[in-house]
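REVIEWER CHECKLIST
Item 1: Sequence provided? yes
Item 2: Single chain? yes
Item 3: Sequence as submitted:
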Amino acid sequence: MRLFIVIFIGVILIQVCEARRRRCPEGTWNEGQIVQWIMSNYTKLLPDAEDDVHVNIEMHVQDIGSLNEITSDFEIDIQFSQLWHDPQLSFMNHSQCIGNITMEPKFLHSIWTPNVCLVNSKRAVVHSSPTDNVMFILYDNGTVWINHRLSVKAPCELDEGGFRLFPFDTRRCTLNLESYSHNSEEVTLHWMHEPITLVRKIQLPDFDMVRWETRKQNIFYPNGYWDQLQAEFTFKRRYGFYILQAYVPTYLTIIVSWVSFCMEPKALPARTTVGVSSLLALTFQFGNILKNLPRVSYVKAMDVWMLGCISFVFGTMVELAIVCYITRCRSSFPKEPDSPPPQSATLYSSRSSGRFRPNGYVNGSCRSDRGSIFDRSRKTTTASAHHRDNSLLLRGSSPPSSPMTARIRAHSMATPQVVPVNGNGNGNGGVYEMGMFVSQTPLTFEQVNGHEADMAPVYNVKRRQRSCWQCSIQPESIDKMSIVCFPFAFMIFNFIYWWYYLSQTFEQVDQPGVSVTGHS
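Item 4: Structure as written out by the authors:
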């Protein structure tokens, strides 16, 4: 059985070889002779045709290297194919057994080419591994097929929103193909039936290629119209990195800033540390994200999020300032006395001691110098004038310009008279004190102290009235209200933020084009 199979295969191979010899009999031209004949009779001019030359183009995407947002470009490796018909290159009449000839790339400089190039590329290099990756196939009917393996660096245009939806944005990178030497009257460009093919689904560290789209345009230049073929690749940003590196940490920072609401209102250092640390953490994180993005003058989605979170942390600092202010007002507001003071007391002023003494006591003793009354009576006017400048003390010292001093001075100067120090008013054997002006009616406690409105300036009264209204709010009640209002407001902010930007992202992706999943 095995011998039969071997014999059968051998017979088939012999017949194939005989058939090949029958198609290419001896005496026919070989490939070298055909190429030599073609090049010797070829003129490098526009092919003779009644109409323009039709060039069909296709593109095979091998890989996409990177997409840079700072320079707004991407790197792509493609196999770029061109097909056109040139009657001068036909060799059907010279060989019946050769259908096509694979020629050396050097012959491309000897024939006419449509000179199709990537007009918007920043850099395009033909791969050399180790020789130039260029394929040139010539068919017997004069059809030319050229294939280049290129590494292209092309620009990525911003969409209508630009970076406004970052990090939920999409990028559109375009390759524009034109004939650099011939306008549309000489060369017409067309996409093939399958213009773009992919080896695999393209996934970058930050982006996914979600779709591609091809179109044809007619571009006007000063010397005519040119056909332009466009291949547009749409990339959607993979925002999982930013969820972990930006959004989750900001959530934790906001929650930590709310811890200050659970602290005592008097714990000022601890609450300040929590608020300032949260604010600095958000600012530092915001700077790290922005340094990898181009400087644009409009607001991005990430800006809205970070500025919103910073505003919430700043709100906790404002709440802390209000709580501290109310706490200070309540601690500095005077308390009402427990029991009213004595209603009346007979007070006298001694010039020798400068203190008030009740009922004739001067320094705790009585003096019996009778002649002193006549000596002091001669200096009554001088002593009374000097006495106005002395300070009067009632339970401590009182400034000369205080309302209490003015009240006592005005009352005591009403009726100047000689008063017996020992309380005996008959003048026999007693010691009299001159230079002391005592009213016949004793001063009461209300007359000495006066009304609160008379003692304090008017602005102090108004300030206490304002403090009375402010201090009626408890600091603890503000913290209790904040620990409910802040999370509720943050939830509303989250709902509006995610609803708006995610809906915008879905609208960008759901646009006409060829999905990558169908051609991967």
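Item 5: Key structural point noted by reviewer: The two ends are 45 Å apart (CA to CA).
Item 6: Recommendation: ____
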